[in-house]
Structure formats: structure tokens, C-alpha cells
């Protein structure tokens, strides 16, 4: 059974940071530095200011066990996924698919033609999940210049034919 998914609040900052830090810790050289992610200070407000939404799933003891956000891409008929994380113990449970369904609803209601995302090159399991959902790795990578020396891959998924 999938736990309830709810819109994030700004007071989710600490538990959301803990989920992301735990996810980063699974990968050698992937370092969580809170200052590099200022959007985590007020997550709901940050996504709302960009016209998007962030959803979370509450776990036991006040932990957040999953998150997924979506924002419109300026100047494009597309939305971008962000903050896609699920607690390691819950991967494969359907939670990520349920979160993704929220993003699909957002995109369909907004009439967007495409969905995009950037993912750290080390997150191979996540890449397989995105490909299962119909995303295709796009040519090109970007270097973030962060404490983890992150390189990211670009993924895109058409949602409907452009007019």
C-alpha cells in the first residue's frame, strides 16, 4: 500500500534534507552540502514561486520517505522534474511511480508537451527508472561545479505531439 502523498510545506525542510542526504550517501563521492541546495530552506515556497509543486510522503517518526517536484521550464512547453528521491528501503514499492503520477497530472492539466530532468551521472538505478517511464537520455551533460564534482545527464519524455 502506498502511503498518502501530500504537497510539501516549508517546514518539511529538515526531513526533506535528511532524505536527500541519505540518498547522496549511497554513492561514493556524492556529498550533501545544504548550502548548495538553498531551495531546501523553504521547499514549498521555492516550487510555488516557479509555478510548480513539490510532493512528499511522510514515513514513521516524522521522516519523509519520498519526494518529487515539478516546475514549468521557462520559454518552453515543458516541465522539469526535480527532487526525485525515495528512501532506499521503499524503492521498488511503487512509491516513485505514485509520485510520478502526480507530476503527470500536473503536466497534463497544464497542457505541457514534454517532461525533462537532469540526474547525477552516478544515479544509475534512477536512470533505469526514468527509462522505464519513457524518458530518453538526451545528448549532452552538464557539470555543476559542486562539492561532489557532479556531472548530470539530461533526460526527456514527450507527453503529446506539439501543435
Structure description:
Strand 3 and strand 4 form a beta hairpin. The protein has four helices and seven strands. It is an alpha+beta fold and 163 residues long. The chain has a single domain (5-158), classed as Aminopeptidase (3-Layer(aba) Sandwich). Strands 1-2-3-4-5-7-6 form a seven-stranded mixed sheet, with helices on both faces. Helices cover 28% and strands 31% of the residues. The N and C termini lie far apart (39 Å).
Structure described in brief:
With 163 residues, this protein is an alpha+beta fold. 28% of the residues lie in helices and 31% in strands.
Brief descriptors of the model:
alpha+beta, 7 strands, seven-stranded mixed β-sheet, 31% strand, 163 residues, Aminopeptidase
Biggest pleated-sheet summary? 7 strands, mixed
Low-confidence stretches: none
Number of helices in the DSSP assignment: 4
Number of strands: 7
CATH superfamily: Gcn5-related N-acetyltransferase (GNAT)
Query: What's the CATH class, please?
Result: Alpha Beta
Coarse morphology: globular
- How many domains? The number is 1
Write the H/E string, N to C.
Answer: EHHEEEHEHEE
Give the C-alpha Rg.
15 Å
End-to-end distance, in Å?
Answer: 39 Å
User: What is the CATH-assigned architecture?
Assistant: 3-Layer(aba) Sandwich
Give the strand order of the largest sheet, numbering strands 1, 2, ... along the chain.
Answer: 1-2-3-4-5-7-6
| CATH topology name | Aminopeptidase
Please specify the SSE layout and strand pairing.
Elements: E1 5-7, H1 13-25, H2 43-49, E2 53-58, E3 64-72, E4 78-86, H3 95-110, E5 114-120, H4 124-132, E6 136-143, E7 151-158
Parallel strand pairs: 4-5
Antiparallel strand pairs: 1-2, 2-3, 3-4, 5-7, 6-7
Amino acid at each position: 500500500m502506498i502511503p498518502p502523498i501530500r504537497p510539501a510545506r516549508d517546514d518539511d525542510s529538515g526531513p526533506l534534507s535528511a532524505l536527500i542526504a541519505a540518498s547522496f550517501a549511497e554513492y561514493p563521492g556524492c556529498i550533501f552540502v545544504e548550502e548548495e541546495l538553498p531551495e531546501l530552506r523553504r521547499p514549498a515556497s521555492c516550487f510555488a514561486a516557479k509555478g510548480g509543486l513539490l510532493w512528499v510522503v511522510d514515513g514513521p517518526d516524522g521522516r519523509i520517505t519520498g519526494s518529487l517536484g515539478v516546475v514549468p521550464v521557462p520559454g518552453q512547453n515543458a516541465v522539469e522534474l526535480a527532487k526525485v528521491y525515495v528512501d532506499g528501503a521503499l524503492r521498488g514499492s511503487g512509491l516513485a511511480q505514485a509520485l510520478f503520477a502526480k507530476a503527470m497530472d500536473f503536466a497534463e492539466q497544464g497542457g505541457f508537451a514534454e517532461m525533462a530532468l537532469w540526474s547525477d551521472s552516478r544515479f544509475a538505478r534512477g536512470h533505469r527508472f526514468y527509462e522505464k517511464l519513457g524518458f530518453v537520455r538526451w545528448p549532452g551533460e552538464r557539470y555543476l561545479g559542486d562539492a561532489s564534482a557532479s556531472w548530470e545527464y539530461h533526460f526527456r519524455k514527450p507527453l503529446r505531439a506539439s501543435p
